[in-house]
Every structure is written in structure tokens, then in C-alpha cells.
Amino acid sequence: MLLEKIQKKEAHIGVVGLGYVGLPLVIEFCKAGFSVIGLDIDEDKVEALSKGKSFIKHIPDEKIQALNELGEFKASTNFSLTETLDCVLICVPTPLNKNREPEMSYIVSTAKQISAHMKKGQLIILESTTYPGTTQEVLLPALESGSGMKGNTDFFVAYSPEREDPNNKDFTTSSIPKVIGSDHPDGLETSLALYSQIINTTVPVSSTRVAEATKLMENIFRSVNIALVNELKVVFDKMGIDVWEVIEASSTKPFGFMPFYPGPGLGGHCIPIDPFYLTWKAREYKANTRFIELAGEVNISMPEYVIQKSFMALNQSEKSIKNSKILLLGLAYKKNVDDHRESVTFKIMDLLSQNGATVDYNDPHIPEIMPVREYKQFIGKKSAPLENLGQYDLTIILTDHSSYDYEAIVEQSKIVVDTRNACGKIKSKKIIKA
Which domain holds residue 378? Predict the structure, then answer.
């Protein structure tokens, strides 16, 4: 019956969590002709969407206004609306706690709110990145205990890892292949039918655990390779070799090489966090993850390397870090987005402040620091204007936004520490690569 409703586009869809993952899904389902309810505990987000306003820079207001005009979308904080839904997609945060262990409270609390209003025949799909076994061991029991129903009998669960890459011009929600896993053939069939309405290519796998592991493998692959090139950066620097030139030359090989690029550390919700999901879960099986943990150590050490380079830069100007004025360029975790989740800039800002520096930041995409889980002391800090570059003792490039005029930045700065090779084509003794 649910399968038929999906195929006829009569199924009512719910998306829990209206952030960088959930909101694009809402847009795609509405475009495909489905009725969609977006649920979120953040009243400000719900109010903004209801007024046709977007809170994500690469999603324009016009797209939200178009949803409202269609009349097929409603944003709400009222989880009792779950009883009107046929399919519910969960897109909530899965951070690490202070001990760098998976924090499942968002999934559990969402499951409890949903389960109180579930009905038979529903399909519940988890999209949040997590460790293998979460759907079976955390989500399913929470749904069963709250609803009094039996999973994969009265309702079905599936797991489909999000693969959003904000502001990627080449790949969109619909064009990125979607991995889908369920522990019951009916759950897999209905999930495939649902996503096939909005995704060009679906990739079925044999279980939720395989689907969960797929996401971790993708991001651990990136984490390990970034750690390798970060370590090579440090080694080559001691040898007087520019790692960026080495990467460019190596990239001319048409086989057996894939370029990865060094930086000041890892940011975003995925790569700094996902490897620790697996290392934590592996302990249950008495399995070692030395390679993954070593990569994590290398990447975590990069902010300290940037600080050391900053000390050296200031020493050249006969300045100490204490009482110096420093401007950090870029708060977003990657170029051309307004997302500062897990941004390494926070860590570097904190380290510099601890050493007595006065630190400002500039980011054309983030005019003010919004609430964050860590580094709460910086909440409310505003982006400093670039017109005052000359008043700073040091400028550190941490995010290579395309809108920056790097020649002007170098010209107006006293000295520049470049962690992204943004000034790679500029010849100046002011530039120190880090």
C-alpha cells in the first residue's frame, strides 16, 4: 500500500532536521510533487521558512518562496504531525561528546518524539552519519519502545547516508548517487522507490550496517589522505620544498595518483568527526584502528603547526605573539560557503587568544558568529572589515574564498601566513606558507 502511494506521489513525506541535509531533501520532494512537512526543534528556522526566508546562503530565498507558493510544504515544531506522514527522514546532528565518543542524544530524542505519534505501515529512514549498527541498536529500539509496535513488521526502517556537499556546482542532491540499506526486503523496496522519485541513481546494499559503513569509508578515505599530505607538507617544508608544487607535478600522472591538498586542519561536520565513530565502535570488537587514529592525530596537530608558523612570521617583524593584532581570513570550514561547523578557524582563534594576541576574523559569508557547541566565547563576534588590514601585525589565510583579492590582501598586509596556497602565484617576501 505504501509502495503504491509513493509511486503515485500520494505519500506524505516528513523531514526531521531542516539544515544543510534536510532542507535540500524538502526542496527535491516538493519539486517532485510530494506533500512535505519539515520538522525542527529550532523555532527560528521554522519561522524563517514559513516566511519564505532561507538561512543557508547557497539556497536562495526564491526556492523557499516557491515551496510556499506550491502549498505542498509546511515547516513546524509540532511532532504530532508525524501521525499524518507515510515516510519520515531523520537528518539530525551526530556530533562527538567531550570524550570524542558518538553523541546519539539527537537521534534518540527524535525517535522518542516520532514514536509517540507513529502509525502502522510507516517508513522511517535515518540519514545522519553514524557508526555501523546505529539503526539496529539505537534507532529501532527507541521507535519500538515509544510506539509499542514491532520494527520491520508494523513499520520499516532504513539507512541512507547523506552525501551533501554545500555549494558544489557540479553535483546536486538529485545527481549524487544515493546508497540505501535496510534489514528487511520490504523496507529496502519502499526506500528505493521513495528516493528514486528524486535521485537519478540509487545504490541498494544488503543491510543498514553496510550503508552506515559506506559513509564512514568515504570520509575516512579523505581523512587519511589529507593527513598524509599534511605530514608531507611539514617534511617538505623542512627540506625547503613547496608541497603545493610537488602536488601539481604529481597530478600530471594520468594513473595511480589522486591529488589531496594540505590545510590548517579539518573542518565541517564529517571528516573531523566520522573516523572517531568507527574507532569507537571497533573497540567493541577488540579491533585496532591504528592507521585511522594516526591520521586523526596528524590532522588535529595542524592548528599547532599554523601557530608555530605565525610565531616565526611575527619574529621576522620583531614582534611577539603577545599583544599582537591578528586577522584571520575565513571562518567557514571550506571556501564559498556560510557553514562554520567544526571550523579549524575557531581552534586557531582560541590558541592565538590564549597566547595573548588580539584576534579578529573576516568572512564575507559569515558576518557574525552564530551559536556553536564549542568556543562559545566567540559567539556574537562580528566579521572585521578588510579596509583595516594595515592595522594588523599578521594576516592568516585559513579559508580561500573566491571573493578575496589576494594581491590586494598581500599588498595591504604587513605579513601573510597562507595555509591554502591562495597566494601561490604571488611573488612577495611578505608571504609565509603554512
Answer: 221-433
Q: Which of 140, 174, 208 is the last residue of a domain?
A: 208
The verdict on residue 260 lying in a domain is: yes
Contact 108, 142 (CB under 8 A): yes
Helix (H, G, I), strand (E, B) or coil at 141: helix
- What is the rounded average pLDDT for all residues in the chain? 94
Same domain, 257 and 138: no
148 and 68 within one domain: yes
Domain match, 15 and 96 both: yes
Residue where a domain stops, chosen among 174, 208, 242: 208
Residue 116: predicted pLDDT: 96
Q: Are residues 225 and 204 in the same domain?
A: no
> Rounded to the nearest 10 degrees, what angle do helices 105-115 and 140-147 cross at?
30
Q: DSSP letter string over 162-213?
A: ----TT-SS--TTTS-EEEEESSHHHHHHHHHHHTTT-S-EEEES-HHHHHH
H helices of 8-117, in order, are 22-31, 43-50, 61-70, 105-115
The reported pTM is: 0.91
Beta carbons of 273 and 299 less than 8 angstroms apart? no
The string of DSSP letters for 328-359 reads EE--SSSTT----TT-HHHHHHHHHHHTT-EE
* Local confidence band at 272 (pLDDT 50, 70, 90 cut-offs): confident
3-class DSSP state of 327: strand
Judge whether 23 lies within some domain.
yes
Quick: pLDDT tens for 73-86: 999 999 999 999 99
Query: Annotated active-site positions, please?
Result: 270
